[in-house]
Please model this.
Amino acid sequence: MKSLKERATREIVEVKISIPTQDGSGVAETIKIKVSALRDPQSGEIFLTGDALKTIDKTKARYMGLLLPTEIRELRERLGMTQQKMSRLLRIGDKTYTRWENGRERPSQSMNLLLTALWDGRLDVSYLIHQKRPSDGLHHYLFHNYGYEPVLIKIKSKEWENNEDETLAATA
Amino acid sequence: MAVDYDNIAIRNRARLDWDATFPHSFSCDLFLSIGNELKDPDIEGMKKEMKEPGETYEFFFHHENRKIYTKICLSPDEQDIIIYSAHPPLKGEEL
Model:
């Protein structure tokens, strides 16, 4: 018997997509879109492959106001940044952006709003870069002058904290 | 591991079942959860005889703390996967 890819015929079919309620527990509405799919002549069954599945996921994500993991990676690449730099820029954990790109975690609704604004070009990344942390002039300085060295910053901050503790202890 | 859509075919019935069970999830979540389960060295499945060339297995995987039944076929060249089923167990907890 030939494989599915070899024996199937390609045709345009209408598929249903469930759009969830705000809390994600149920279906708010069902939409229909047309995609290219494989029909198995043996069983008559419809099978969906790469591009159709991407289209379905992207359509669903748009209705939900979300970016897909592939789009989260594309956004970072478009901005020419590393995962670590994106994490620092968005003030999230070092590995969080990586987990979003891998699909292991999904951004919160508020963070997704920010990502979507960057994706749509409604928010300039330089705006975020210029947001100075209230307690950390060093971050800002290094970001602009030396291309941002988070590890260095962490070490420096720690040293500073330790020194301060020692100074306070000595004073006491 | 990034999600790769290109070597996967899913029966539309299975996609609809997945969509109905997890309305807020995507196809890529299904692939990721199956992929994670397949990394488990203790995974247990049952081989199924199918006309489709390749090897077909049924097994359970977990997504959002729910046990999900799936049946997948790995092509003879081990490059393509067909997902036939992805839904909560309908015939009990055993395969």
Observations:
- The two ends of chain A are 84 Å apart (CA to CA).
- Confidence is low (pLDDT under 50) at residues 152-172 of chain A.
